[in-house]
Amino acid sequence: MTELLVSLAIIFVVGGAFILIANQFDLPTVPFLIIGGLVAGLFIDDEITLEFARYGIALLVFSFGVSIRFEGIRTVLRDSEFVAVAQVAVTGSLGFIAAVLLNTPVEQAVYVGVAAALSSTIVGTGMIKADIRDNLIHGRVANSVHFIQDVLAIVILLVLSAEAFAPDPVAASIGYGVALLVAGVIVNQYIFDVIGRLAKGSDELLIVSIITILVIFIGAAEFIGVSIAVGAFAAGIAVRHEPVEHIGVFNGLASIETFFVTVFFVTVGALVSVPSVDVIAIAATLIVLTAVVKPAITVVLLMYKGYESRSSTLVGLNLDQVSEFALIIVIEAMALGFVAYPVPDAIILAAAVTMITSSLSRRYDERIHRTLADRGFLWEQHTKVDEGSHVPDGIEDHVVIVGYGRQGQRLAETCKTVDIPFVVVENDPTLLETVELECDAYVFGDSMEKYTLEKARADEASLVVSTAAQRPVSERILELVDGDVILRAEDRETATELLEKGALYVAVSGVLAADVLIEHVQGVVDDESYVDEIREHGREQTEKLLREEHGGKSLRKDVDADS
Amino acid sequence: MHTEVAPTDIALGTDFAVIIVVATVLGLAAHRLKQPSIIAYIIAGLILGPAALQVVSPSEVTETMAELGLAFLLFLLGIKMRIEDIRHILKPIVKISIPQMTLVALTGGGAAYLLEFTFVESVIIGLAVMYSSTAVVVKMLTDKNEATSLPGKIDVGVLLVQDIVVVILLALLAAGVPETATEVAVNLATILFFIGVIGIVAVASSRYVLPELFRRIANDKNVFFVISIGWAFLFVLVSIELELSIEMGAFLAGIAIAQLPYSKELQDRVAPLTDLFMLIFFASVGLQLDASDLFEYWWQAIVAASVLMPAKFVVFFYLIDWQEFDLETTFIGSVNMVQVSEFGLVVGTAAVAGGFIEDAVLGFLTVVALVTMSISVYFVQYNHELYAKVRPYLSRWESEGGREKNGKEYRDHAVVIGFDEITRGTLSILKERYGDVVVIDRTVGHIEALEDTEYDTVYGDFRHEKVRKEAGLEYADFVLSSSVEVDINKALLGAVDDEAIVFVEAEWAEEAYSMYNAGADYVVMSAHIAGERLAGYLESYFKDRERFDEAVDADLRVLTGEDPFPDPGGVADD
Q1: Whole-model pTM?
Q2: DSSP, res A390
Q3: A-B interface: how many C-beta pairs under 8 angstroms?
C-alpha cells in the first residue's frame, strides 16, 4: 500500500463530497474541487500527488489541442480577436501594476497579470453551452474570446518556460515550441492513421497508443526544456481526428482526463496554506479585477466595436473568472522555481472565489444588465441605432420581424411574396451587411430596448413576429408591444405562459416537428415503401436549402436571432 | 502546509513513460499477431526490468497505478454484478472454492517437496499456488465479454473467495509464526467480520442511500463519474484502514452501484482507466523478475508449472461438475482458471519478509506464476474453441445442468434515442409495429417517466458501446434519434443494420445533407419545420384570416391541451 494510493483515495473522497455540494446548488464543479483541496490538504502531502496532478495539466491542455477545429478559427477571428486581445492587454497590465504596488517582485507580478487577464473556458463556456449551440451573439462572442485566450495561454506557457527573461532563450523556447507543434501536425498527417490501422478493432490499444503519443511529446518537451503543457498541446494536435471514427476512444480518453484533472484541481487547492495578509491582499485585488474590472472593460470594448449593450454585458459577465490556464501557468512556473509564496496561493484562492461568483453573475446576468441599463450606466447610443437603421417615414400596417436568422429570412421572403412591408430588427454586427443588402427597412439594435422597437414603429405595425426563442426577449416584447405578437419558445410550458401574457401565437419547434415526425413514422409503419418517398423528398429539400444558404450569404451558419 | 517545490522533484516519471511506450509498441505488435495484449505487457516488463535491460525500476507512481489497476478492475467487475444474478450460485461457489484450494495446495506443496524444497518451503509454495489470477481471468473475460456468463460468474466468485483467503493468509504471515490456534481463529474472525460489515454497508447503501444520491447527480456526466470513483475510493480507504484487501473494498463498492439503473454507462467510463492502469500492472509483474532468480530453480519451476496447470484443471472440472453445472460451463469455468495468481507472489513476498523462505524461492514462484499466466491467457482466449475440440471425449460428464440465460436480447425492434417532445408521440406507433421499443436516454427524469410503461429503457449516453449493446442497436429494424449532434448520428448510422430504417435530427441543412449521405432515411429539421410553418401562418394572417385563426387554434389546442400526445403508456392504441 503506497502513501500515494492513500492520498489519491482521500482526494477523491473529499473531492467527491464537495462536488456533491456544487451539484446540489447547481454551481460549477471546478471551484469546489479546489475548495475540497483546501480540506484534503490537511490530510495529504501535496508533493506526492503533484505528479498525478501534472498529468492532469497535460491532459487538460491535450484535450484542448484535440478539440481545436482550425476551420472554425477564421470565423472566430473576424468576431472577437480585437476585443479578446485588447481586454487581455488592459486587464493584464492592471493586474501587473496592482501586484507591483502590493510589493510583489516584478517577475512574479507577471503571473498576477496573467491571472487577471485570462478567463476560464471550462466554467465560462460550460454555463452558456445552450447559447453557444444556438449560435446566439453573446454565446458566439464569449466562446471565441475564451478560445483566443486559451491560445494566448499556450503562447504564454511557451514564453514562460524559457529559462530566463533574456530575449535569447525566449526566442529559442518559442522555436522549440513551434518545432513541437510542427511535429504534432506531421504525426497527425502521416503517423496517426497508421497507428489507427494497427490498433484496428481494439479501443484499448488505441487509447494507450494515444497516451503513448502524449507521453512522448511530454518527454520531448521536458528534454528541450519547454513546459510539458506545450508538449501536451502538440500531442493533442497530433491525434486530432474526426471523432466519429473513434467515438469510443475519445470517450475513453475523456474518462482518463476527468480522473487526472480531478486530481489536479484538488491538489491545486491542497497547495494553498493558511492565507496571510499578503495572500489576501493580492487575492482580493485579483477578485475585484476579475469580477468587476474585466467585465467592464469587455463591455466597453464590445460596445465600441458595435455590439449593443445587452450582448456586451452578457459576454462581459461570462468572462468574470480566473482561468484554469492561469492555474496551469502558475503551477508550471512553480515547478520551474519562477514563482513562490504568496503569489500562487493568491491566484488559486482568487480562482476558486471568482469561479463561484461567476456562476452567480450568470444566473442574474439579464437582471444585472437591466439594472445597469435603467440606471444609465450603459450609454445606449440612439445615434448608433439611428445610423445603422433604415426605416421609411410613416411606415405602418407592416410586419416587424425580430431576428434575421434562418427563420427571419424565411419570413422576410414571405412578406415579399405577399407584398406586405416589413422591418427587420437585428443586433448581430456580422449580419448587418446581409440585412442591408436584402431588406428595404431594418433597425440595427437590441429588441429588448424600447427605442429599438419604437424605431421599428412596432406600435403602428399590424404584426410583430419574433424568431428568438429566448424567454426574456419574448417577455420584453410582450411588455413593449400592444398589437398582435407571434413568438417562439423552447418548450410548451413557456409557450403556454406567453400565450397567457397575451401572445397571439407561440411556435414551439419541438411540437411542430413532432407533428411532422408522427406523420412520417405512421407512413413508414403503414407502408415500407413510403421510406423511399420521404428519403428522396427530404434529400431534395435539403439540397434546395443548402443552395439557398450558400447563395449570397457569407455565413456558413446563420444566426437564429438574439435581438 | 506551504510547499516549496524544487524544480527537479516533479519531472514527470520516466518509468511510467518508458513502460507505456514499450508496452504499447509490443501491444500493437501482439494485436497484429492476434496475441493477447496481457502477454505483450508482461514481456514489456521483462525486457525493461532486471531480467533483461534493467532500465526501469518501479517508482511509487507506477506501483500506485498497478494497485489502482487491480482495484478498478474489481470495481468494474462489481458494477456488473447484480445481486439477484449471483445469489443462486453463492452456495456452489463456496463448495467449489474451499476444496479446490485445499487440493491444489496439497498438489503444489507435494510437487515442491518432491522437487527437493524443504518442508516449510513446500508448505508456503502450496499456499502460494492455490489461487488463480484475478487479473488475468477477469481482464480476459471482460475483454471477451464473458465476465457475466455463467462460467464467468463461477470463476469470479471463486476468485473472490480466494481473495478473502489471501487476506487472511497475509495477516497470518505478517504476524509471524502463529503462537496458538486461537490467534489464528481470532484473526480469521476479525477479517470475516469486517468484510461482512463492509458488505452489509454496501448492500444497505445501494438500497437506501445511493438511489437518491445518484438520481440527483446522474444527469451530469462528469460529476456522476467522479462521485462514483470517489465512492470506490471511500471503500478502498476503509479497506486500507482495516488492513483488508483494497480489491475487496473496490468490488463491494461496485456491487452497491450495480444495483442502480445507471451502471451501464459507468462501466464504459471506468474501463479505459482500468485498461491503462492494468497495463502498468502487468508490466510490473514482468518487472519483478530478476535474472538470477530465473536461473536458480528454472527447471523446477517448469516442472511445477506443468504439474499445476493440469492439476488445477482437473480439480476445478471435478468440483464444478460435482455442483451439477452443465458440461460446457464446467469445462469453460475450469480451463479459465489454470494459472497461478499474482497473489502467489504477494504471499511469497510476505513469506520472505516473515522469514519463512528465501529470495530464490520467491523467484521460483514468480517463474511459475509467469509461465502459467502466459500459457493460460491462450486457454482463456480460445476456451470455446478448445471446448468444441474436446467435447466428444467428455460426453460421459454430460449432465442436465443448463442454467437460464439472463438479460433480454432484442431482435427486429425499434430503438429511440432521446425521449422528448419530438419522439414522444411516435412510441405507441412503433410499439404496435415493432413489438419492443427501447428508449435510450441520459436524463434521469425521462427514464423515470417511462418506468412502469410498456417501453424498455436504457439509461446512458449513446456514445458508449455498452449502452448501444444493451439496446441491441445492431439488430434493430427502426431507429429514431432526437439528438442533433452530428457525431452521435454518424456513429449511429455506422452501427445499425443496413436494412434498418433510420430517422435522425439535424440542426443545419449542411448537417442534414451529410446525414442523408451517411444513409439516413429521413432527417428531421425542427427549426426548418417551424420556420416553414411560421411563414405559412404569416401568409394566411394577411391573405386568409379565417384560415389563420383555425390553424392557430388547432395548434394551440395541441400546445395547451392537458395531454395532447399519446402518452407513453400507449393508451392511444385506439
Answers
A1: 0.81
A2: B
A3: 346
